[in-house]
Recover the amino acids of this structure.
């Protein structure tokens, strides 16, 4: 059974996605901020991370997040390091799931190893199981 980590800070959106994903046979984990997500990723090495780029960081909670360098990119950088240490055959995939819909963000996410980039406002949550099945097989 594949493990999926959903990194989403908006409780309503997180709940919606988790409700839809519970219909599938995945182990589901969730995190609402950067440090929580990194802790889960390091401990569990999920097969797939669904990553919102605009999540809070407990390191600098009072500092507004810059749109040109959202906190989610820090997680992508850490995943690059962890991929090198993962056991043979283990894929640590990341799909960005964000409302930042710019070519710059898409390109940066790909450079940092994101496998795909889905724009939340263009995604029907009911389509998630089918998309994940295509990714994870």
């Amino acid at each position: 059974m594949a493990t999926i980590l959903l990194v989403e800070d908006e409780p309503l959106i997180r709940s919606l996605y988790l409700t839809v994903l519970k219909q599938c046979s995945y182990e589901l984990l969730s995190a609402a901020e950067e440090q929580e997500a990194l802790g889960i990723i390091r401990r569990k090495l999920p097969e797939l991370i669904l990553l919102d780029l605009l999540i809070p960081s407990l390191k600098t909670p009072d500092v507004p997040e810059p749109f040109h360098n959202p906190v989610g990119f820090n997680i992508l950088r850490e995943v690059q390091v962890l991929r090198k240490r993962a056991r043979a055959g283990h894929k640590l995939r990341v799909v960005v799931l964000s409302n930042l819909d710019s070519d710059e963000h898409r390109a940066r996410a790909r450079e940092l190893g994101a496998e795909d980039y889905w724009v939340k406002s263009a995604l029907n949550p009911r389509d998630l199981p089918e998309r994940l099945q295509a990714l994870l097989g």
Q: What stands out?
A: The beta strands are 3-7, 27-31, 48-51, 93-98, 116-119. The first strand starts at residue 3 and ends at 7. The chain has a mean pLDDT of 90. Residues 89 and 128 are 25 Å apart (CA to CA).
